[in-house]
Specification:
The structure holds two protein chains of two kinds.
Chain A (H helix, E strand, L loop, with lengths): L1 E3 H5 L10 H11 L3 E6 L7 E11 L7 E6 L4 E6 L9 E6 L3 E3 L6 E3 L3 E3 L2 E3 L1 E3 L35 H4 L5 E5 L13 H11 L23 E4 L7 E8 L8 H9 L7 H12 L5 E4 L12 E6 L5 E3 L5 E3 L5 E4 L4 E4 L3 E2 L12 E7 L2 H10 L5 H6 L7 H16 L4 E2 L4 E4 L8 E4 L2 H6 L5 H10 L3 E5 L2 E5 L12 H12 L20 H16 L3 E2 L5 E2 L1 H7 L18 E2 L4 H12 L4 E9 L2 E8 L7 E4 L2 E9 L6 H15 L3 E5 L7 E11 L2 E9 L1 H7 L5 E7 H9 L15 E10 L4 H9 L5 E10 L8 E10 L8 H19 L2 E3 L1
Helix pairs in contact in A: 5-6, 6-9, 11-12, 13-16
Chain B lengths: L1 H17 L3 H12 L5 H10 L3 H40 L19 H15 L3 E2 L5 E3 H4 L19 E2 L2 E6 L6 H9 L3 E10 L11 E11 L4 H16 L5 E5 L5 E10 L16 E10 L1 H6 L8 E8 H9 L12 H4 L3
Parallel strand pairs in B: 1-5
Antiparallel strand pairs in B: 2-4, 3-4, 5-6, 6-10, 7-8, 8-9, 9-10
Helix pairs in contact in B: 1-4, 3-4, 5-10
Classes of the chains: A alpha+beta, B alpha+beta.
């Protein structure tokens, strides 16, 4: 929203010493976000009124002209490319030294005497955009220069342009989002109230002249409000004898300063009231209403019938739905209430009888209609904030007053229609006086509190240790309803900088530990620290084509309104996006080692509760750790990832077992996929990605992948074995190696189990070599184990050791047909 | 005889002293101690032939001389071997500037993880619990429990991803979705932070991401005031940007707090003088904060007549971008290792 500093000053007497900058700063600290502060004359230094005396062709360029321009004491030679330059024209002349926007560029250019195609030029005849006056002089085509002929008298030639056009305003650009909760600040008057309070000045009365109603109705316009919930108040004034023409300059200048385009006096009046008070209005051409000729015209405020059509002022035709509130005559929709008027009943040059509408509409209904039809207008932006229905009357008074002023022949034809049904919760709010200190931690003098609240329009009455505060109607629609709201009002005006900071005092208690978060950090250290994995963050969204490439038949949660159709699903695994990471990175690196920690979404399993009491549950969203490894030349990348699992087990003191997976998913290598079991519980999977699937993702190398459910791991971690102390053994242990050849299908897990259980003297069993190759027959492998034997009570004798080894040998032979090599 | 012994000793010690290396020393040793023809061996043998009286007189001196020479040889030997070692170690010189090959590269954490962990440690040290929760969240926890009813305009500023066939489910638009969950789970008094991933349905560009990270905090007890809120925000700001950092509060509307503020800190790049990053204001908007709205406390099962508190939040993504001067938010979730390996 654009705010004119001069306009604000119309309602607050600010001393000249208070600059626009100070006002903006105070507003920023206490009220709204002021995004920009623009002086209207920012680009007008050294820009004067010039009169073009002579226009000749440029000798070297067809599109340029050679002009002689009079600036009173001097005649300057100027090269000009303006399409509309002509002799006798009054122009905006930027002299040498002026800073202009060259061809609309952001950076300013300081003009110097220059030669253009060999002809000297001592300044520039300006287009509107070059000196920041686009809103005042909208150009019809790009090369058009500002034509001041007729706008100002020739006597002004040589005068600074800013003075001649009275461009001395400063415009604040307010961030609309910063006042979305304040229905009262969408006009200059409301903002002036804030400024008055902030500078300790009084606010002038709004001062709309009360309408003098005629004794009798001429047209007898009937207003019917069918839905008073959606339209708590509807006022209409009928004026005849209206002459539609241009508005007076002062009004046009005001509208332009606030970023509005002047249209005609009637429309401009409604826009002026909107900008001044914040109340949107509309004007209908009464002659376009059905029944007008028979003096039977009606205004009906009703819900649209589904399928009704209306052509709006912006010339778009929309189809209405039954939730839309419309203004209609007896036959057809005239306007989408509070959003935009219809073209049919719009004000034209031929209009002579008008209806001023000043109404109040339900905020959420307006919001829904404007969203539904994609129409965010200045009117809907205000109505959806919940406006004060009392404004309808003030606004209508103002509009009629201005209509009379601009058009002597305009007269009220009917009595004012006013149909209303509203109540406002104006309080009073009764509160303890000390609540301010209790909430803010800072004592504000009572006098200040009353002064601030009164200045903002609240009525404060004191009752010993309490205050009763009545809410002004313009803040009572939803903005202010309780004591907390009043605390904010006082605190922001008093100044947050006046609150001295302090640290809260708490009893000393150790915070409850978040074990999942601690585990995540541990795992990051393990993967990045010990295994050179790099951590990636990916979006949670996956695409149908990713799912199809995986061959995943799982149930996916789908977004209702995805940003792109491309990735509408929530990931069930970190795999698909990490595969894409691998594809991207293998271009630059021979090895890709990445891991990610993040949530996956399983709609087929139950998760957290939807609300405080109900039984509905959200989809399960477990946090996973996944690691991916691939190297261009590594044909068996499984071990690199398995090693990280082993290390994880050591660091976390957990015993991970990996067994062949019984149900291998389609994206896994059918014989290189394992389940990870910890403490008898399934915690994740480790596998090589099926090379065919990897190819579908665009990866030519082998990829190994790990997925661990951290929520499960945290639960198991609770029970993790702690390091235990045992007395250092008094007697030495004996180490013996066993090597043997077995069938290739025999697994380490089988052998290990067998060896561990042969004798109580066996302390540990460790695989230290596996060989497959020419030295053994095909389909067989050689395995070598190191057995550690010990006794707590004495040194082992060689016969004891030999007996164990013989047992081991026969057990291996019996179970696996293995021949131990001596 | 005595003179002869003294003479031998003098010459022997001289020879030992003069020995250039261990070989020369071994020659000296042989010359004197060789069993066959060693000077000292011969001398000792000759003593045997002396009279008992003579033996007594000369024997002691001879023995002492022998020991003295032996000791001198041992010492010289030690001296020479030390020199030898020094010489041989000199040859073992290596290029200390060369890295160990092949290069063992370390892994890299994502910058958001780095900053998040650092903040979690900071808040933990002040007694805050670290909480987490669902990213696919109910409308109730994300909006309505936070005083944002269905048609509230505040929903406009948070373009929301909705879930198909579940109109009441959303991808959480802020970590504030955990406010009521945390109150319900932990009760009062409460100090908690809630870091996490958030989603908004807006087109991505250099400054906007549909997926980003926030950190939210709550402090609730019987007499928690806005002054405390200011104190904690200052502590965080100083922790992030140094002890000179200042905080200023400006009004800002959030439906779930009242009063609601924007916390700005003095720009750490220009120390408040004004620069491009802080748009020449000297201040950078970092926090959203405010006193928790009574209705939110009620939803959390906390008696608003007895307890009060504040909430605060900030964008981890934004903090990371400011900290490292990252100009394009999209790189953070690109999975590009050329980026990740820088941290």
């Amino acid at each position: 929203m654009k705010l004119s500093f001069n306009w604000l000053k119309q309602y607050v007497n600010l001393p000249d010493s208070v600059s626009a900058l100070e006002v903006a700063e105070k507003l920023k600290m206490a009220t709204v976000e002021v995004e920009e502060i623009d002086r209207q004359d920012a680009l007008l230094d050294n820009v004067v009124i010039g009169k073009v005396l002579k226009v000749e062709k440029h000798p070297e360029a067809d599109k340029l002209k050679l002009c002689e321009v009079d600036i009173k004491n001097e005649k300057l030679q100027i090269v000009c490319g303006g399409s509309n330059v002509r002799e006798g024209m009054l122009v905006a002349l930027a002299k040498v030294g002026a800073k202009v926007k060259w061809h609309g560029q952001e950076d300013l250019l300081e003009l110097k005497p220059t030669a253009i195609r060999g002809v000297e030029s001592f300044g520039m005849i300006c287009s509107a955009s070059e000196i920041g006056l686009d809103t005042f002089f909208p150009a019809k085509e790009q090369k058009e220069i500002i034509d001041l002929t007729g706008r100002i008298s020739e006597k002004q030639v040589g005068k600074p342009l800013a003075d001649a056009l009275e461009l001395n305003d400063v415009i604040f650009d307010i961030d609309n989002k910063s006042l979305s909760h304040r229905p009262d600040l969408w006009g200059h008057y409301g903002m002036a109230r804030e400024v008055a309070v902030l500078f300790g000045k009084s606010l002038k009365e709004y001062g709309a002249v009360k309408i003098k109603e005629p004794k009798k109705d001429f047209f007898g316009l009937k207003v019917e409000v069918k839905d008073k919930k959606l339209c708590p108040r509807y006022m209409a004034a009928v004026l005849r004898g209206v002459k539609v023409e241009e508005s007076p300059n002062w009004l046009k200048a005001k509208l332009i300063s606030a970023g509005f385009r002047p249209i005609n006096n009637i429309v401009d009046i409604t826009n002026y009231v909107l900008l001044d008070l914040g109340q949107p209005m509309h004007a209908f051409d009464m002659e376009q209403l059905a029944g007008n000729k028979e003096q039977l015209a009606k205004i009906i405020v009703r819900r649209a019938e589904s399928g009704e059509m209306i052509k709006l002022l912006d010339e778009n035709v929309i189809e209405l739905v039954s939730e839309d509130l419309i203004i209609a005559d007896a036959e057809k929709p005239l306007a989408l209430a509070g959003v935009m008027g219809g073209e049919h009943s719009g004000i034209t040059e031929k209009t002579t009888t008008i209806i001023f509408e000043s109404a109040n509409f339900n905020a959420s209904s307006i919001r829904k209609s404007s969203t539904r039809h994609g129409l965010r207008t200045d009117s809907s932006a205000r109505f959806e904030k919940s406006l004060d229905p009392n404004w309808c009357e003030i606004a209508l008074n103002k509009a009629v007053e201005l209509a009379h002023k601009f058009c002597a022949t305009a007269e009220l034809a009917d009595k004012i229609s006013d149909i209303s049904d509203f109540t406002l919760a104006v309080g009073p709010i009764v509160m303890q006086k000390n609540i301010f200190e209790k909430k803010l931690g800072e004592k504000i003098p009572e006098k200040e509190i009353t002064k601030i609240l009164t200045g903002l329009g609240f009525k404060v009455s004191a009752q010993s240790d309490k205050w009763a505060v009545e809410i002004p109607t313009w803040r009572a629609t939803k903005d202010v309803s309780g004591a907390e709201d009043l605390i904010e009002e006082v605190a922001r005006i008093w100044g947050y900088e006046q609150i001295a900071s302090a640290m809260p005092e708490f009893g000393i208690t150790a915070p409850e530990k978040n074990k999942l978060s601690a585990l995540e950090h541990d795992l990051r250290d393990i993967f990045a620290g010990s295994f050179s994995f790099d951590e990636v963050y990916n979006y949670s969204f996956v695409s149908p084509s990713q799912i199809e490439r995986l061959g995943d038949k799982g149930e996916y949660t789908e977004l209702d309104n995805p940003l792109s159709k491309e990735k509408p699903y929530l990931r069930r695994s970190l795999l698909p996006n990490m595969m894409e990471n691998a594809v991207k990175n293998i271009e630059f690196f021979d090895t890709v080692r990445i891991f990610e920690i993040g949530k996956v979404f399983w709609p087929d399993m139950a998760g957290a509760r939807v609300d405080s009491n109900g039984s509905e549950l959200l989809p399960r969203q477990d946090t996973y750790l996944s690691a991916l490894y691939c190297e261009k030349k590594d044909e068996a990348p499984f071990s690199a990832v398995r090693r990280s699992v082993e290390r994880m087990g050591e660091v976390l003191n957990l015993d991970f077992k990996i067994n062949a997976l019984s149900h291998v998913a389609p994206w896994m290598h059918p014989t290189r996929a394992g389940e990870i079991i910890c403490d008898g519980i399934f915690v994740g999977v480790i596998y090589e990605v099926n090379p065919f699937i990897a190819k579908k993702f665009g990866l030519d190398c082998r990829v190994s992948f790990l997925e661990i459910n951290l929520e499960t791991l945290v639960e198991i971690g609770e029970k993790a074995k702690k390091a235990t102390y045992r007395k250092v053994p008094d007697f030495p242990s004996v180490v013996r190696d066993l090597a043997f050849v077995v069938d290739g299908d025999i697994t380490h897990a089988q052998v290990e189990e067998c060896l561990k259980s042969i004798d109580p003297l066996v302390e540990s069993v460790e695989l230290f070599d596996v060989y497959i190759g020419d030295a053994v027959s095909e389909g067989e492998k050689s395995m070598a184990y190191r057995l550690t034997l010990s006794r707590p009570d004495k040194t082992l004798s060689s016969s004891e050791v030999d007996a164990v080894l013989i047992k081991a040998g026969s057990a291996l032979k019996k179970k696996f047909g293995a021949e131990v090599r001596r | 005889m005595n003179d002869k012994i003294l003479k031998i000793k003098q010459v022997a010690l001289e020879a030992i002293r003069e020995a250039k290396d261990r070989e020369a020393l071994r020659d000296v040793e042989n010359e004197y101690f060789s069993r066959k023809a060693g000077v000292l061996t011969e001398m000792m043998k000759s003593i045997k032939d002396l009279s008992v009286e003579e033996k007594k007189k000369v024997g002691q001196l001879a023995n002492e001389t022998k020991q003295e020479i032996e000791k001198a040889i041992v010492e010289k030997n030690y001296e020479l071997s030390e020199e030898d070692w020094a010489n041989s170690l000199a040859v073992e010189k290596i290029d200390l500037t060369a890295p160990v090959l092949p290069h063992a590269e370390r892994g890299h954490l994502h910058p958001v993880s780095i900053v998040q962990k650092e903040l979690e440690e900071f808040f933990s040290s002040m007694g805050f619990i670290i909480a987490d929760g669902p990213e696919l969240e109910s409308d109730y926890f994300n909006f309505s429990s936070l005083n944002i009813p269905a048609d509230h305009p505040a929903r406009d500023s948070q373009d929301t991803f909705y879930i198909k066939n579940h109109p009441d489910w959303v991808m959480r638009t802020h970590t504030s979705s955990l406010q009521v969950r945390s109150m319900q789970k932990y009760g009062v008094p409460l100090r908690v932070i809630m870091p996490g991933k958030c989603y908004r349905n807006e087109a991505t560009d250099a400054r906007h991401e549909h997926t980003f990270y926030q950190l939210e905090g709550l402090v609730i007890n019987e007499a928690i005031t806005m002054a405390h809120m200011k104190g904690v925000l200052e502590a965080v700001a100083k922790h992030l940007y140094g002890p000179e950092t200042q905080v200023r509060l400006r009004p800002k509307f959030y439906p779930f707090v009242e009063p609601g503020v924007n916390g700005e800190v003095t720009c750490f790049l220009c120390d408040g003088a004004g620069c491009k990053v802080c748009k020449n204001t000297g201040w950078m908007e970092i926090f959203g904060a405010g006193m928790i709205h009574q209705s939110v406390l009620k939803e959390g099962g906390i008696d608003p007549e007895k307890y009060q508190g504040f909430a605060f939040g900030f964008g981890l993504t934004r903090l990371v971008m400011l900290k490292y001067g990252i100009e394009d938010a999209r790189i953070l979730q690109s999975g590009d290792l050329r980026f990740i390996k820088q941290f």
